[in-house]
Amino acid sequence: MIGTDTISRVIGQDVYDESGDKIGSAAEVYLDDETGQPEWVTVRTGMFGTKESFVPIRNADLTNDGLRVPVSKSKVKDAPKVDTDGHLSPQEEQELYRYYGMGAGTDTAQTMTTTESTTGMATNDMATNDMATTGMAGTGRTDTDLNERGTVGHDTSGPTTDDAMTLSEERLNVGTRSEEVGRARLRKYVVTENVTETVPVSHEEVRLEREPITDANIGNAMDGPAISEEEHEVVLHAETPVVEKEAVPVERVRLDKTTVTEQTQVSEGLRKEEVELDGDGTTTDRRV
């Protein structure tokens, strides 16, 4: 259960659906005007987090891993497109209730207000916008009281205000987040290559030797018949190459990472309010 005491911890958390699939990151929390309890959270989705969708936070759980909401990722993806301008109209609120199959909530006149993170970085200057739209409605001042000052402002999109209007503009807050962009895998495989080496080998050859009959060998020469047939043989030898293989370690290889920082430009259209003075015919219009 998300309460007002844990709102600051919700901002910036990763948001997961009921199955554990990541949806995006929490941007803003909207409170119910009547109960003051968190009712909606806007979730930044898409590759660069430029799309924001309203997701019910009434029965969500905040864990060490992030915020788990009781809806599916596909449900959030097709949610109604509602502007995150700091306040929900009764029509927008009812549209979200119908889409998520929730009860009507509090009185439809009680819409949502934005709660910002404790870092003090207000998104789109919505705190200033709330002052511009509510004006002096909460002070108890009446139109008669305002007339005493000579000027009454009537907001064409809201209640009567005081004698001044507030100009607001959007500011661009740029940051970074880490996301997986690819993977590198180191693997080894076996290749076969031919290696040629020269090895000296020797072999025996037969040759015929003749020696004359002398007193030293006359005995051997006269051994045997005088005339006969006879055979002698000699065994010849030759060397042949012998090859043996063995596997030996030659090198160790590992994967390492290095961080490279480069400059990337981002651009976004920012809105701002300007004023235009309508004259009575004797002066020209002037833009401030």
UniProtKB/TrEMBL annotation:
GO cellular component, one term: plasma membrane light-harvesting complex
Location of the PRC-barrel domain: 6-74
GO-annotated biological processes: photosynthesis, light reaction
Family annotation (Pfam families): DUF2382 (PF09557), PRC (PF05239)
Region (Disordered): 138-163, 258-288
Superkingdom in the source lineage: Bacteria
Gene3D superfamilies reported in the protein's UniProt record: Photosynthetic Reaction Center, subunit H, domain 2
Domain DUF2382: residue ranges: 165-276
Protein name as it appears in the record: Conserved domain-containing protein
InterPro entries assigned to the protein according to its UniProt record, in alphabetical order: Bac_photo_RC_H_C, DUF2382, PRC-brl_dom, PRC_barrel-like_sf, Stress_Response_Assoc
Composition skew (Basic and acidic residues), residue ranges: 142-152
